[in-house]
Specification:
Elements (H helix, E strand, L loop, with lengths): L27 H5 L1 E9 L8 E4 L3 E7 L6 E12 L2 E5 L2 E2 L10 E9 L2 E6 L6 E6 L13
Antiparallel strand pairs: 1-2, 1-9, 2-3, 3-4, 4-5, 4-6, 5-7, 7-8, 8-9
């Protein structure tokens, strides 16, 4: 077994030790990754419940009917985030949303802990508030009996 004294530690002498997570200010790009539940929407069909997920390069959103659990619409694609402005490319969609494939949307993102707000910069109709999904939250689908 090699002891610590036998190791050549000189190459690590000038290594930078990153600060602990509690001292790091995360960017919007870091904070947005994950799954979010729609809590407020200022647009048509505001009775819908929805989910959106961001991976760091791609997004996908699904809106289920709260009574049946059937998907009302589904779409997603790539995104680019520059500061607080996100450009979402729509690369795929379900049949009901196929007319938007190939389009793009620019939105302004505001983060506040586990809540993010988006302002639709192009049409002004998809202004929404989302809350980070946590596994302890109940399902967005109502029980069917």
């Amino acid at each position: 077994m090699i002891s610590v004294n036998e190791l050549d530690v000189k190459p690590f002498a000038n290594a930078v030790i990153p600060p602990s997570d509690e001292h790091v200010t995360k960017t919007i790009a870091d904070q947005i990754i994950g799954t979010w539940v729609l809590v407020e929407a200022h647009r048509l069909n505001t009775s819908s419940q929805g989910l959106i997920s961001f991976t760091g390069t791609h997004w996908i959103t699904a809106t289920p009917d709260p009574k049946t659990g059937l998907v009302v619409y589904l779409l997603g694609g790539r995104y680019i985030l520059e500061g607080d402005i996100m450009t979402e490319r729509i690369d795929f969609a379900d049949e009901s949303m196929q007319s938007v494939i190939g389009g793009a949307a620019r939105i302004k993102i505001t983060m506040d802990g586990d809540v993010f707000k988006q302002i639709d910069l192009d049409r002004g109709i998809y202004n929404q508030t989302w809350k980070r999904y946590k596994p302890t939250q109940p399902s967005t689908r109502q029980d069917r009996k």
